Amino acid sequence: MVTAIVFIKADVARIPEVAEQVAAIEGVSEVYSVTGGLDLIAMIRVARHDDLATVIPDHLNRVPGVLSTETHIAFRAYSSHDLEAAFSLGQEDGV
């Protein structure tokens, strides 16, 4: 499994639509809206490095409203986490 983190600058007026279109691309596992100098961060998970060429330049970069991207390829994961558990922090059981 190859993981890439893509920093996305988007047309501010179109961020929700851009995020939804990026999230719908096969190989994109998550899209986050963020503060700071970026608008979105996309997590890409594919089987082979060559698949990144299909996901990022062929699809993600062509989404209307994407102004620029910066891609970082992960070499090694040092921890794994359960996203469901992370998002349920602070909630009581049964709520």
TrEMBL record:
Q: Which Pfam families match?
A: AsnC_trans_reg (PF01037)
**A Gene Ontology molecular function term of the record:** sequence-specific DNA binding
Q: Which UniProt keywords apply?
A: DNA-binding
Gene3D superfamilies documented for this protein: 3.30.70.920
Q: Return the InterPro entries for the record.
A: Dimeric_a/b-barrel, Tscrpt_reg_AsnC/Lrp_C
Task: List this protein's GO terms for biological process.
Answer: response to amino acid
Report the GO terms under cellular component.
cytosol
Task: Identify the residues that the record assigns to the Transcription regulator AsnC/Lrp ligand binding domain, covering every copy.
Answer: 7-76
- By what name is this protein known? DNA-binding Lrp family transcriptional regulator
Q: Which organism is it from?
A: Kribbella sandramycini
Lineage, please?
Bacteria, Bacillati, Actinomycetota, Actinomycetes, Propionibacteriales
